[in-house]
Design goal:
rod-shaped, about 80 residues, mainly alpha, 1 helix
């Protein structure tokens, strides 16, 4: 009887161990995917910052052009 109980416990523990292994692999995959998302998000944030910077330069150029054409009064 105890042999049957030990065998049953052993089988259950093996199944639990397999399940834990699958969960561990899934968590590792999710970690890699999350790191990829973070990397892409950082790149997007840098791109947005560059766009705002470029837009600021273009705004300055438009302001100078408007002053030269006499469309607005100089701000100095």
């Amino acid at each position: 009887m105890s042999g049957t109980t030990n065998d049953l416990i052993y089988e259950v523990l093996k199944a639990v161990q397999r399940d834990v292994s699958v969960v561990r692999n899934d968590v590792n995959d999710l970690k890699h995917q999350m790191n990829a998302v973070r990397t892409h998000l950082t790149a997007i944030q840098q791109d947005v910052g560059n766009i705002y910077n470029r837009l600021g330069h273009l705004e300055d150029r438009v302001d100078r052009i408007e002053v030269r054409l006499g469309l607005v009064e100089p701000t100095h």
